[in-house]
Amino acid sequence: MHKYILRRLLMLIPVMLGVSFIVFTMMYITPGDPARMMLGETAAPEAVEQLRSELGLNDGFFTQYGRFIYNLVVHQDLGRSYKTNVPVMTEILGRFPTTLKLASLGVLVAVIIGIPTGIISATKQYSAFDNVSMVGALLGVSMPNFWQGIMLILLFAVYLGWLPASGFSTPKEMILPAITLGTSSAAIITRMTRSSMLEVIRQDYIRTARAKGQVESVITNRHALKNALIPIVTVVGLQFGYLLGGAVLTESIFSVPGLGRLMVDAISSKNYPVVQGGVLFIALTFSVVNLFVDILYAFLDPRIKSQYK
Amino acid sequence: MANVNPAMDGKIPQADVKIAKKKRSQWFEVWLRLKKSKAAMVGLAIIVILIFSAIFADFIAPEGIDDQDLDRRFVSPSAEHFMGTDHLGRDIFSRIVYGSRISLQVGFIAVGIAALAGGSLGAIAGYYGGKLDNGIMRAMDILLAIPSILLAISIVAALGPSLANVMIAVGISSMPSYARIVRASVLTIKDQEFVEAAKAIGANDLRIIIKHILPNAMAPIIVQATLGVAGAILSAAGLSFIGLGIQPPNPEWGSMLASGRHYIRDYWHIATFPGLTIMITIFGLNLLGDGLRDALDPRLKN
């Protein structure tokens, strides 16, 4: 098991190198001179040229990429923001906890809605509850979350005045962003829970449990759900990563001061080191979460544990 | 939908008629199964209406895409302006009708790019195996490590916002799933006897992949593509929403929504209708995609 975790951690290195290469290449091909952007449009050409050589922008692509990786690995340095001249790492670390909190709350909303709805739908297949929740789930997947956010603001902030339309510091302010971000994941988790449960409750051991007179709720929760959990956990893990990405849109709707909003602002002001660092950071988190999900399998299913060598 | 039944497009040479007949019956059966699903038919109807309004937008829309009239700004939905007018006095319904052209284009072309590029890579990886397979699939893993909306955002940020770049960005970001699906299908098919037979009569690899393997791997690709169009339209709308997509005055649904957002406190209709249109479109595609999956592989149906 330890060996397996270690091997998976080592496998993260080439993946992150690949991600950094893609992100760096994209920034490299982006038109615009970083030195000029830092100094402003009115700067003297000599000053721009001097900064270019200081930053090493006249070097070849691979030299620059090598330096980027070296600085990142050795000094945990992602460069400086063109706009504020603050190290990108500092800016990201200041914003990331907020995004992580938002994504976690989103996943929480999704799990609280998705898993119970999926279980009831599966145990009462083709009932009115099942039909309504399946249509609801499909609508949930189909709704663009930026639109849903605006509609929630319209209803709860503008018309009813119950909840604030923006911000993310008090629990009350967190409700709408978390629901907005979590809805589509709730829908996906509902669908996955339902189909996974349906597969399991047709198994012989469920019939056996029933035949020996086991209470229905114990059958559902202990016999069926436990065995149906693997695909559900996979989807929850994937959704977490998806929500980290989706937070970009949600944060800009509710003016949440997170990493996503920082990146959207950075994109519109062509502040590429911030964009680059943000993408890298989210990709790393996403990969770590996926690794964590794979390790969790072992605890859910002893059969898988024996394969992890 | 036309692509449900490729055997009926009339391009089959005489010599292949026999095979075509068999093929037709296979796809015809899929269609019969699909027809039984009310949900899939509702989805198909939504998509057909949308395609219809994209083609005949000039006749359906009462006004053009950028007919501004500052005397009638923020008109609420009425008999004259079914969905009201926006902050520049443009008829929202007309813009939504024209917007269907952009959204459908983005949806289909982005999925085309993703399926073609991802599918080819997946087919090569699955067919040749070994180091090539490993290399291609690890590259796909790297793309998968970046949440797709974020990948699309960074690609458009690098290339600059335009319709073509949105299609490319959304296409590239959804490429890995096609590579994985096609590779998996190719792996199960490539060792079957009819492939061996084709090899024995001297068919080259390209012919084997295109003529013998891919047609037998179509079912999951079609399902993924249908659901993929929905995802692509959503991503493109999201990109436009943060100002990275199709630029004004072009009536992209996401950017219409974004501009209406500023007036939400006083004029609800500007942001509501474009969003509702996106939702119904995606809903239709999802219904159809689910139905197709059940029809193409009845074993999967719960």
Brief digest:
With 309 residues, chain A is mainly α.
Return Rg of chain B in Å: 22 Å
Let me know the number of strands of chain A: 0
The biggest sheet of chain B amounts to: none
Put simply, the count of helices of chain B is: 13
Helix-strand pattern of chain B, N to C?
A: HHHHHHHHHHHHH
Q: Which secondary-structure class do the elements of chain A indicate?
A: mainly alpha
- CATH architecture identity of chain B: Orthogonal Bundle
Q: What is the terminal separation of chain A in angstroms?
A: 6 Å
The CATH superfamily of the largest domain in chain A appears as MetI-like
Distance between the first and last residues' Cα of chain B: 25 Å
**Number of extended strands of chain B:** 0
Describe what you observe in this structure:
- The complex is a heterodimer of chains A (309) and B (302).
- Helices cover 80% and strands 0% of the residues of chain A.
- With 309 residues, chain A is an all-alpha fold.
- Chain A folds into 2 domains: 2-75, no CATH class; 89-308, Orthogonal Bundle (MetI-like fold), CATH 1.10.3720.
- The termini of chain A are close together.
- Residues 1-8 of chain B have low confidence and may be disordered.
- Chain B has helices at 17-36, 38-55, 57-60, 92-128, 130-144, 148-159, 163-173, 175-189, 193-200, 205-213, 218-241, 253-261, 269-296.
- Chain B has one domain (78-300): Orthogonal Bundle (MetI-like fold).
- Chain B is an all-alpha fold and 302 residues long.
- Chain B is built from 13 helices and no strands.
- The interface between A and B is large, with 51 and 46 residues.
- Chain A: The complex is composed of two ATP-binding proteins (NikD and NikE), two transmembrane proteins (NikB and NikC) and a solute-binding protein (NikA).
- Chain A: Pfam families: BPD_transp_1, BPD_transp_1_N.
- Chain A: The chain crosses the membrane at residues 9-29, 102-123, 135-162, 174-193, 229-254, 274-300.
- Chain A: It is found in: Cell membrane.
